[in-house]
Input
Amino acid sequence: MRSIALQNEIIFLILAVLAVVSSIVMITAHRPIDSALSFIVTLISVAALFGLVNATFLFVVQIIIYAGAILTLILFIIMFLNIKDENLPDEKYKNLWLLGTTLLILPFSAILIHLILKSDIALNSATDESFGTIKDVGLTLFSQWVLPFELVSILLLVALVGSVTLSKRND
Amino acid sequence: MLKAYMILSIILFSIGMVGLISRRNIIVIYMSIELLLNAVNLSLIAISGDLGDSSGHVMSLIIIAIAAAEAALFMSLFVVLFRKKGSLDANIFDILGSKHES
Output
């Protein structure tokens, strides 16, 4: 039992370092294709972190929808637009901007981390076998969360109509 | 373990915020927004697994659906703006302003 917890902590540490490093590469890369490729690494490590806390259904959904659909769409658009170096904005002061914004954001995240470390949030994690499976999530979705589910369907329809209207050539 | 998840979520959110504010490439800005949503999802799922309640899973499922809708809209916006301006610079996308002709 003890060795399983230790093993989980080691896996968590590796995945956390992978997610943080690849997301830093994502926001600092100059060409968008590099950012998209390193963002895939972030998404897959976040999915593996979902799997580490028994969220098996969300693990599958994250892999399929995020890494499978959304990032593939981004890569497709980047390659489809045939972006050359002169189409990119020349961010001369990019590193300066990144440094300044980091100094701006740092106090807030330091306060939040300090609060999290001081708080006594419970650490029970006594879950049964069926927690996080499709059956469990689906029962909760269709018993307590029916209204948000229907609203999301309307939102998807609106987004579909909106994207078709936007990309229609008006000439 | 829950505290470690929350701290990782805060760190990822801060990185996404830095990218959102300081970059001018709209594709990187879009991916920073996705990173913010992922950080929130991570903390929701960690709390949900700790409480043994699957409402957090449903919430993050809905957030993923919203992100998919957002992706569709953003992609058509990229295509339209790139066709109109030939650049990915967020500073020159001011075509909603009143002084824009044709």
User: Anything to note?
Assistant: Chain B has three helices and no strands. The longest helix of chain B spans residues 55-85. The helical segments of chain B are 2-22, 26-51, 55-85.
